[in-house]
Amino acid sequence: MAVVALIGYALAISGRNQLHNLAKRAYYLFTLAIVLASAYFLLQILSHNFTVSYVFEYSSTDLPLGFLVSTFWAGQVGSFLLWLLFIAIIGLFLVHRKSENDIAVMFFYMLVVAFFLTLMVARSPFLLIPEHFLTQFPGGIPPDGRGLNPLLQNFWMVIHPPIVFLGFALLTVPFCYALAALTRNNYQDWVRNASPWAMISLLFLGAGIFLGAYWSYETLGWGGYWAWDPVENASLIPWLLNLALIHGFLVEHRKGVLRRSNLALALFSFLLVIYGTFLTRSGVLADFSVHSFTDLGTSGYLVFFMLLFVVLSLILLIVRLRSAATGRSVENLLSTDFALAIGVFFLVLLALLTLAGTSAPLITRIFSEPANVSRHFYNTIALPIAIVIAFLVGLSPFLMTKEKSLSSLTKHIAIPVILSIISLVFARLAGVNQLQYLIMVFFAAFAVFGNIFFLFRQPRGIGSRLGSSLTHIGVGVMLVGIIVSAALSQSEKVNLFSGYEPLTTLGYQISYKGLEGDINNRDNALILEIDDGSNRFMADPKYFIASENEGLMRKPFIKKYLSHDLYLSPQNQQTVGDGDKLILYKGQQLGIGDLGVRFVDFDLGSHDDGGAMKVGAVLAISRDTLTEIVTPYLNFDGSGKRSLKADLPFGEGTVILRDIQADAGMVSLQFSGVSGIDIIDLLVLEISTKPLINFIWLGLIMICVGTIISYFHRRRLQRPIN
Amino acid sequence: MKVKIIIAIVIVVVVGIWAFNSFTDSLTAYVSFDEAQQCGARVQVMGEIDHQNVHYDIEKQVLHFTISDEQGNRMNALYAGTVPGNFQQASHVVCLGKYDGTVFQADQLLVKCPSKYQGEEG
User: What is the CATH number of domain B28-112?
Assistant: First the structure.
């Protein structure tokens, strides 16, 4: 690894001189070294070499191949290596270019590489387990590893990190182009060079964020998909800035303005990737986020390099403030460019506000108690900004071609506006009440219809505008999905006993059949039969104890309809009946033999002088239509607990009170002389209906596809932008 | 041009004030048990979970538990949402919510299992 570091530094320095060929070869060597290091690392994982600390921590022998490979990026150190690998490979596309500008770009690129190499050296993925720890294993070799966190053993979570890291790695390129342009004070072609990379990054990072959200919804069981958690925000903020940058590039290319803000955006989208990495990996936010990982000692390096790059960027920006300007300005208020500039402004605003919220614990620590902002903050600020952006997205295609006059503009947007009003009415009728949600629906619909109409009005066919229109329609669709599912979701928690009559809630009839499989086996399933009025189907959410960390895991069951999702999330599961024993909570009734047993209340007996205490469970025992009260008691005295038998009515056997939990309102009973029962499970299930939530995924898919189309369209044109 | 700049500044100032208000309104400070009990506002507290004293009320579907801080103070808490899977294994928990006079009503729980890459919502 040290050799690689040396090469990195050599390249950094020689990049500035005429030793270009030497530098190029050194770069190839460097990339080769990284690829080999990664391959070697993967080999350690695949061969289950548990003497390597990382392999021990994150993998085990029972992992199937796919998950085993994914342990490469499961831990911090491995993920840095993956990131570095991506950067090395991306650099291959840059290193062969010969212009003076590109040499400068490579210089800065190698600075970034040097930073990553330092991290690798500081905390090598190949670190072995310390000697004294190994002695507890026979032969000094651990037979098996700790295993992969069960939450990560999931298709989405396997592919999500590499895609996100690729998105991050790609942002290095515009960063370096911006630094090179500023340093050399030469801005010719900087847009043309940097923008393809920015677009690819937008696609991958965006897809990565999408996958993370979908995973959260589909696997975790809390019913949501975005929690504004620091790790989520850390990927969103650079993405938003990059999105602003891409739109800013359009303006810079057409009108030559916004150059300085574009340069700043290119610099800061990368810098905020590093900052986000620092926030989430250094442990600074450990008390504020479920996602934060403890400090591995790398935070010092992260801070150093971050400050280095930030200072460098700021100095360059300030020094070049005058000379980087193009001297032109946006004149026409009705022009596309003005709308784009406003859009850039609001995207940056959203990114900055999210950044402020995410950094809140750090900021407040300076002034007083460290504090965090609630999700409410993010939702409050995001909504108005999203409304403005939806408006611009809907309006912009009409401003696209020529600067139109106000009257021709109104003529063109009339129909989309009418359709949007109709959508608004629909939403209101469906039950959306809050004013800000209705406004959002209106503008999101406007974004959708505006772009659809524009697309089909194109004289030259839809080809040239398909990419951006599709993306913008996707934005509108996604926003509608977000707002409607937020406003109209309903949720209930119900108690279901296995084998008992179905329960009806939220329009569904549900009966619980029982737990299939073992609670310790992750392939188990809670079997439910659901009747939605027209169909009957089985549901199989999961609830099990994972062997890797003894944690309780749940996996929801989701049934997708066109208009909504049915979301079932097990909250708690307990065996309450088995053979001759029953566990009852206050007010509940179960059956044993041919008797119905209902736990009515506790009978807290008196203390007597000897300090003994009697507690009883008042039971209503029924058979057919007859009911009688029976109260078995538990005696607590000096010699411990004693159960007093109580006779069951109707000439049957006896019942004793085995245990109570007064706080939980629970009693445990044992019967004799009655025919036993099969297992009865109690399942606490959360049932939710989420209208139009699939619009969110549909919209995101449209955004991704539209971005891909746009990218290829731009490349095919050979012209830089537009 | 001047008009545009003035409009821009006005917008920035207005947005700034509104954002700042939202920000400070939603700050949930990390406080001690005492402060949480006196303050009544939404705060965060962290404590060690007393696993002898955790139970899930099936009837109302609420989790009851007790946490203790470094000084040994104890506070009862309850939580009605989806319980994080590793609650039973966690040593400490961060609770966000309000103290209602008798018990801390948490609307969000963050469980902590040190030294492992965890990704879980609570």
Answer: 2.40.50.140
